[in-house]
Amino acid sequence: MKWFWKKKYNGRLPLLPMNFSVEIFYEIFSHLNQFDILQVILINKQFYELGIRELYKCLLVDNGTDRYIISQHMRTSFTTKYTIIDGIQLFKKKVFKRKRMKFVQLVIFRRDTCLDAIYQDMIRKYPWVEIRIMDPDFMSDKGPFYTNQKLKLQAKTLTRLKIEPNLFIKVEDDNYSIIEYVINTTPTPVLLSSIPKLKRLETLCILDPQSNHLITDLQSSQLSDICLKTLILKVSSIQLSSLGEIFNLTTITKLKLEFTKNVAAPYEELKTLTSNLPRLNSISINWRFTNAVIIMDYLVGKNIRHISVKTNEEIDYSYLKYYPTNFMKHQQLISLHLWGNPPTPPPPVKTRSRLISWFSKKETPCDDLHTSKINAIRGFIDGGFPNLNQIILNGWFFMITGKREVKLEHWPNSHMSCICCF
């Protein structure tokens, strides 16, 4: 097999299920930096155990068989994201002493091969590297094993920085490589003080359902000079009117707001906020008590192409089926996601454009697809949404591939799918 790798290959490598030995797999992975695309259609358990599951998160795993599926092409440079380590000596020989650590962002050790001296040496020399300690079977992850030291960020190739509860990294100097900053713990003033030093930051994600002082801490962090494109907030609650005082809203194109407390939906604040977001084209709302139709009305005229609304209350499909004027003004929509508790199904109505709660029924689509379901989707296609190609209503997923074809899938039962033509 060595002759194959002598020639640099920059195309696509399809890998089908084959009973390769572990040594051959390591030979393959040692040369993956030569490929731009790896297309794995169907892989066996051995390939999965070697760590491919940690490289990408888009795996569809069928526990009923010994086969694992990756459903899409994945374009990236392997050497900048991942390395597989099976034994500390292999790591020292292949990576650590060859000065290749500048490409590595994640290292996984088996628990029975990790040496404390190597671990301490790594966190001192390579603070940008994420270190995980795995069980010897390499399949059951007991959780990450991080350092809690305050480390100076030195990597020039790192583009994403995620702060976990037991991982603390402070950015001390100006950084021009990181474009995504995720805080998955309490956003302390020290953590927030790193944001102004991320000069090319485009995505800020704060995931802290318990924080009660977020606005005050953000206001003291001087973030108005950061040109964000994506802002994601998962918090207990927040005053939306204060976001304009903290961030430069003129550059934000994607906004995601999730409240974890039972608070009243701030409709008017949302309307004011979106009015100050001239480039907004994608919005996701996850509030426990809200009305999806009211939000749709408030978003009219914003030129938003992707709308997602999730609520604990029932979504009034009887309102949607008549296509009110404001709802129909969203003609620029490409994807529409409405998630809520299903209402009681109304009596059958012989009308082409009705939308009822059959979206939440557990049916076999290929056997029980009634004419009403097809007509409902036709109502979306023919009723003023020329660009719409994706609809999600209470777990029913509709992928519109053309004027004559609709693909329906029910989540999480993705095997329940059917192509319908009309």
UniProtKB/TrEMBL annotation:
<protein>
    <recommendedName>
        <fullName>F-box domain-containing protein</fullName>
    </recommendedName>
</protein>
<dbReference type="InterPro" id="IPR032675">
    <property type="entry name" value="LRR_dom_sf"/>
</dbReference>
